[in-house]
Amino acid sequence: MEIVLSTAREIDPESEVYIFGSVAEGRSLPSSDIDILIVTEKDAAEILPKLWERGVKTPFEIHVVKKNALEIYRRKTKLIKAEDYLATSKIPLAPS
């Protein structure tokens, strides 16, 4: 998870990174994926290859959206800022 956060910030210092889905809602299973939302004005084509190069893959499901789409996610699901999750969670996410 730390790699996702640091890579997003390296490419766009203004980016925001959130965890959502079953992990954020506290109902994940060992087989669950880990949904990550990266909010940035950069294109996914700029961010995703960097993450893949750095070994970020399954179980992470990465969603890259522009800032104007953030409200749609907020209405649909619980979002937790990645920094907050990393600072407070006792449950480690898959290898970062």
TrEMBL record:
Q: Which Gene Ontology terms cover its molecular function? A: nucleotidyltransferase activity
Q: Which SUPFAM superfamilies does its entry note?
A: Nucleotidyltransferase
List the InterPro entries: NT_sf, Polymerase_NTP_transf_dom
Q: What is the lineage of its organism?
A: Archaea, Thermoproteota, Thermoprotei, Thermoproteales, Thermoproteaceae
Q: Which domain of life is it from?
A: Archaea
Q: Which residues form the Polymerase nucleotidyl transferase domain?
A: 5-71
Designated name of the protein: DNA polymerase beta domain protein region
